[in-house]
Amino acid sequence: MVRESNEPRVLIFSQRNLIRKNPFRCAHFEFEDTISQIDAVELLAPPIDPFSSRQKFAKQIAYHTPIALNPGIKTGPLKRHYDLFLSVCGDPTDLLRINAIPGWRENCKTAVCLIDEVWVRQMSAYRNFLDMLKKFDFVILYYSQSVKHLNERIGSKCVFMPPGVDAIRFCPYPDPPHRVVDIYSIGRRSEKTHRKLLKMAAENGIFYLHDSVAADQVLSAAEHRALFANVAKRSRYFIVNPGLIDRPDIRGGQIEIGSRYFEATASGTIMVGERPNNGEFEKLFDWPDALIDLPYDSSEIDQAIHQFEKEPEREEKSRRTSVSQSLLRHDWAYRWETILKLAGLEPAPELLQRKDHLRNLAQAALQDKLPATLGTS
Q1: How far apart (Å, rounded) are the C-alpha atoms in residues 97 and 376?
Q2: How far apart are alpha carbons 179 and 169 in whole angstroms?
Q3: Enclosing H/E stretch for 150
Q4: pLDDT digit string (tens) for 56-95?
Q5: Is residue 270 a contact partner of residue 142, using CB atoms and an 8 Å limit?
Q6: How far is CA 252 from CA 243, 248, 282, 314, in A?
Q7: Residue 347: pLDDT above 70?
Q8: 306 exposed, middle or buried (CB, 10 Å; 0-12, 13-18, 19+)?
Q9: Rounded to two decimals, what is the model's pTM?
């Protein structure tokens, strides 16, 4: 079939209008939006009645039986054929919504599902949801240590791909702002480290920016990402730790790399936290001083930072190297390129143009000298 040049070749099924806009999902929508800028995409984002009990009921049924009910999605059959279908899921329960779209598999040559979070310990509970993955040609996981176990359940179609970031949005160049926030921490945290940082803020006057409320949704995903990026590139240090580091009851012995590592790197803030010892981290962040090692639940964060700051030139080089490496390796453009290769599709011109822009920014990050006031508060 010959496709007109202005026709979309990619159908993205987005969860953005089907669930609460949880903060962790904002990165998913950022990926979808980036793809829409660099390829011929149709975004399918049907709404769902937030007051309906059908979604909760359908999910409970699927947990206990292989019956997949429509959770309340209202959409007609697809009107054209696509070369590629992509859906980004937060966890396997999101698959129930994809299953409710009539004719999606028949109208798409290749189907790819990306799942952010699926732990080996939870696979048994998710077994009926995971069976829905058998309709896909490829399943991509952010968690490298889950790939083997999922392949054993659904066949050899599962691959690891690390998270990414809109490296252009998070990049502090070409006009790097002053880093007025000393230490930035969002999401899960060690109470012991947090207490030490509060003490440093009270006694030493550092600007420690952290969550003071438990947020389960954002008002606008795009605005949330923009604000997050703007604060990150104005921060000197950023707390990072492996996924669900405080929940071994869920993750078991798995050590996985969360999105925070990629977001921090892209913004040029220096990561402080536990180094994920899972065989992938050293491949993805293989430059000197990518991270200041601090074991989870440590109260010695002041000593770790003080030791690092003894060499100002080292600090500056670390920031610039991290930004350039993110631009050259971890932008969503490279993740989309990986998916296109799986599907046997050539990149669109817009993807190649974005990669050129990323390379130019990376060169600026390496060549520009940071202002003398950067890194002070």
Answers
A1: 48
A2: 16
A3: helix 147-154
A4: 999 999 999 999 999 988 888 898 999 999 999 999 999 9
A5: no
A6: 11, 5, 22, 36
A7: yes
A8: exposed
A9: 0.93
